[in-house]
Amino acid sequence: MTTQSEAIAADLEAIRANYSLTDEQRQIVDHVDRVSREVLHPLQSRMDDEEWWPDDLFKQMGELGLLGITAPEELGGSGQTEFTQALVSEVISKWNPAVGLSHGAHDNLCLNNLLRNGSEEQVKKYVPGLCSGDLVGALGLTEPGAGSDALGSMATTARRDGDDYVINGSKIYITNGPIADVILLYAKTDKSKGAKGISAFIIETDNPGFKVAQKLDKMGFRGSPTGELVFEDCRVPASAMVGPENTGVSVVMSGLDLERAMVASVCVGMAERALELGLEYAKIREQFGKPIASFQMMQSKLAEIYTEVETARAFSYRALAACTGLPKGAGGRGEIHKLTAAACLYAGEAFNKAVTEACHIHGGSGYMQDTEINRLFRANKLLEIGAGTSEVRKIIIAEELLRA
């Protein structure tokens, strides 16, 4: 029979496994925090003002060990888990949201999806360059007429022609699209099968028939290059297909749950920075002869922001723990689908509340576009839209609850 001390030890181990960091994870987080604060944070202002992305930034991130978190060491990666990858994304996003967004599209949506679903040849060909930053990755899913219904309404096609596929269509709102070397693209290979007739491809952007139609000017996350991509008789070899033909949905869904858990982590990092900025400002801003931090109304706001941050953190860690080590082909249904949608939903709304209150603490200065709190405020709306809108997240949760 289990003793009370044994039960306590077991409970503590389970809690720590889900809500605490290992010594190695803490060392990684400390390293990422230092380099993000010293290298990435100073870039914020120019990136936001000019929608500017430094040409060599991905290579610099590769040299700093910020890329290829889940890739094996023999391929140039860090050999860490998806949980650790999310921690890295959380910290980068805290100090530079635009870099955090591009990092997630590169390291998770492209590189990690390729690791999970690509052939041995594809992995060996592309992953080392993605880890070093010599190659920039992106994911091509959303289309002008296919957002929340990205799979059902997809119009981009890939037609077999001998040993090649010929791709026609367009993708929009593609993070890293204007600077990508490699795109994990989804296209319909059998229109008659609807969403079940979609296939995934690795597209090299120097292929004839590919072009960036436009670089988009955004409200927030400015500097992270976002674009509209066009494919006009873009010919790729059949070996560029990821997985068997018409199995692209499983590739999408295998990465979507992790993407939502990662978005929750991004929200946590940015909400944590909003708390820091609100706290700093409340201590130095004086009204009526004393710091506004001494007023109970301001203290109430700070307490509420802290509670939102830590609740979202605990929820995101739980979702990430469930995603870590998820078998190939798993996800997109069941408990994990419900959990990650809920974590993403809560974290997005928690960040919205946190940054709104922090911006309010700043008063008039928070309304000025060149302040850091304003940059966070303008970025927050995307986190209730990307990876499935808040409404779509609620639908997923309800469907899984009713299916049980």
From TrEMBL:
Organism: Roseovarius indicus
Family: Belongs to the acyl-CoA dehydrogenase family.
Domain Acyl-CoA oxidase/dehydrogenase middle: residue ranges: 138-234
Ranges in a coiled coil: none
Domain Acyl-CoA dehydrogenase/oxidase C-terminal per the UniProt entry, residue ranges: 246-401
Gene Ontology BP annotations: L-leucine catabolic process
One Pfam family in the UniProt entry: Acyl-CoA_dh_1
Annotated Acyl-CoA dehydrogenase/oxidase N-terminal domain residues: 22-134
PROSITE patterns per the UniProt record, alphabetical: ACYL_COA_DH_1
Superkingdom of source: Bacteria
InterPro entries: Acyl-CoA_DH_CS (IPR006089), Acyl-CoA_Oxase/DH_mid-dom (IPR006091), Acyl-CoA_Oxase/DH_mid-dom_sf (IPR046373), AcylCo_DH-like_C (IPR036250), AcylCo_DH/oxidase_C (IPR009075), AcylCoA_DH/ox_N (IPR013786), AcylCoA_DH/ox_N_sf (IPR037069), AcylCoA_DH/oxidase_NM_dom_sf (IPR009100)
SUPFAM superfamilies assigned: Acyl-CoA dehydrogenase C-terminal domain-like, Acyl-CoA dehydrogenase NM domain-like
Listed cofactors: FAD
EC number: 1.3.8.11
Catalytic EC class: oxidoreductase
GO MF annotation: an example: flavin adenine dinucleotide binding
Protein name: Cyclohexane-1-carbonyl-CoA dehydrogenase
Key words of the record: FAD, Flavoprotein, Oxidoreductase, Plasmid
